[in-house]
Amino acid sequence: MTRRPLLARLLVLMLAAGCGASAEPAAEAGAEPPGPLAVAETLAVALPLRVPATVYVENDAVVHARAGGLIEWIGADLGSRVAAGQLIGRLEAVDQELALGRAEEAHAQASRLAQRSRQLLAAGGATTAELEDAETGLLQADLALRQARRDLELTRVTAPFAGIVSARWARRGRLAAQGDSLFRVTALSPLLASVQVPEEVAAALAPGARVSAETGVGPAEGRVVRLAPVVDAASGTREVVVGLASRRGLVPGGSATVVIAGPPRRVVAVPRDAVGAGGVVTVWTGTTAVARPVRLGGELPDGKVEVAEGLAPGERVVRPR
User: What kind of fold does domain 50-59+187-260 have according to CATH?
Assistant: First the structure.
């Protein structure tokens, strides 16, 4: 074989090798995704803030025995509605009643003595010192009478405010010591919920602002009652107290989710059906499909969902066929 035909054959082989090297990228460029694609886009939304809370009331108190003694009478039971100052229990008060009788008699005598001393002093039949002694005795008798009335009053157990008896520990015939818990009285309104709100959301709120709540008995309207004047440095939040409208079945101690409109912000969004179980999306790179976990935010209109982390705007995700 001559030198020229040999060179020609080598040239042909080199051209063939070059064509083979470019065949694989051409095949990759024509690869098909496993399903229809959707582009992660940025949207300006005002997603509501949802914060769990517990419904409570300001007036919720345990009624304690203010004196020691035998429980003589029970005037309210669990679930009873009571008025402010209503008598709901009474301790045995025989000793206090006797002491009050003695104090009333002593006060009456001291009052008569003081009156007689004033008359005698005016007629010249008593000295100023004698009148001062009589007036001092009247003052002491008055204090003793007030103490006796107070001791008798302490045997009465009354409701501190209007509400409902939410607990009863008192039992007739049992001996109660001073400070023992007898009843718990809970007001039924106004209903409140306290939530911790991010600083940027709280900045847009003011007393009277309308909010809403989702409760175990249905939705409820609400208004902001008060806001903490400072931000908690540890959490970056402010306390917001919300007053809830009364509705049947909504009682203190129940659970609620306070819903507050958030400020407008930009988010990354994809179709909801593009997110698989466990918060995983399939990202199409142009040649391959890659599974990637993401952290989701709130639900958006038009069947979309916010992707808080894991996906950048412009990336393409695979939707189911």
Answer: Elongation Factor Tu (Ef-tu); domain 3 (2.40.30)
